[in-house]
Amino acid sequence: MTVETTPAIDAALARRLIDTQFPRWAGLPLVPHAPAGSDHVIYRLGERLSVRLPRHPGAIGQAVKEAEWLPRLAPHLPLAVPVVVEVGEPDFGYPWRWAVSRWLDGEVATVGALSGSHDAAVSLAEFLTALHRFDAEATEELTGRPLAARDTATRAAVAKVGDTFDAAAMADLWATALAAPEWDRPPVWFHGDLHTGNLLTRGGRLSAVIDFGELGVGDPACDLTIAFTLMSAETRATFRAALDVDDATWTRGRGWALATGLNAYVSYAAVNPRIAAQTARQITQALSG
To answer: Which of 58, 84, 104 is the last residue of a domain?
Structure first.
């Protein structure tokens, strides 16, 4: 069944799906979780579980991907990652597979709390080093798209926001990133959507990385976006040194930060001030290097 519009999702639907497919959890309280992301409606199920229902077609593969791959990756990673307990099936008019996962305690990372933390920068570098080092199985389904695939959309976005940011600087960075040497080593695992909203903290320290919907293999430069989303110039330098990133990969990473920041800014600036502020920072930090 193909659905192009967002299905109606509410607690009554989630309750019916859980109680019908996983009756052992029928007695657990179900509470909406806020803030939810743009890809999923999230509920807390009891004290130890979460329920994630995709909002749109772009998110429908995450439950199966996390269930299949994260158990293989998790033992090699220094921070906690989601653990999918069950994958639910479409029912009651809801068209997609969905996930029940273990609840991960923590607060969403913020620039205010962590941008100046060299410990956080090193922790992220250690996480990415471990992820990028783990043997990747290069399959067509998981192979990431190259930076150049974003060329048309990025140039269009630069034209749209040229009065808000430095259009010449954006065009120059984008051209430089596209001209940088491509990844010429064996493909590695990447998270693919590493930003502050996908990091959890406990006691002021990074504790978990979540939301692996863009998990794939190929060029790890896309994961460098976190350096421009979260960090200051000083902690970014610590991160780069700890990760031991070559110039070409760093330049492509700046390109990824610019492209993804522009995409989100154009999509959400008019309707979500929080995302507008976050992505404006990402763009300006990518321009500064």
So the answer is: 104
Query: How does pLDDT run across 55-85, given as a tens digit for each residue?
Result: 999 999 999 999 999 999 999 999 999 999 9
pTM: 0.93
CATH, residue 273: 3.90.1200.10
**Domain with 226 in it:** 108-288
User: Looking at the structure, do residues 99 and 165 belong to the same domain, yes or no?
Assistant: no
Q: Give tens-digit pLDDT for 84-127.
A: 999 999 999 999 999 999 999 999 999 999 999 999 999 999 99
Do β-strands 49-54 and 98-102 pair in parallel, antiparallel, or remain unpaired?
Answer: antiparallel
Per-residue H/E/C for the chain: CCCCCCCCCCHHHHHHHHHHHCHHHCCCCEEECCCCCCCEEEEEECCCEEEEEECCHHHCCHHHHHHHHHHHHHHHCCCECCCEEEEECCECCECCCEEEEECCCCEECCHHHHCCCHHHHHHHHHHHHHHHHCECCCCCCCECCCHHHHHHHHHHHHHHCCCCCCHHHHHHHHHHHHHCCCCCCCCEEECCCCCHHHEEEECCEEEEECCCCCCEEECHHHHHHHHHHCCCHHHHHHHHHHHCCCHHHHHHHHHHHHHHHHHHHHHHCCCCHHHHHHHHHHHHHHHHC
- 101: how many CB neighbours lie within 10 A of its CB? 23
In whole angstroms, what is the distance from residue 55 CA to residue 42 CA? 10
Angstrom distance (rounded) from CA 199 to CA 212:
11
Distance between terminal CA atoms of the chain? 45
Evaluate whether residue 2 is within a structural domain.
no
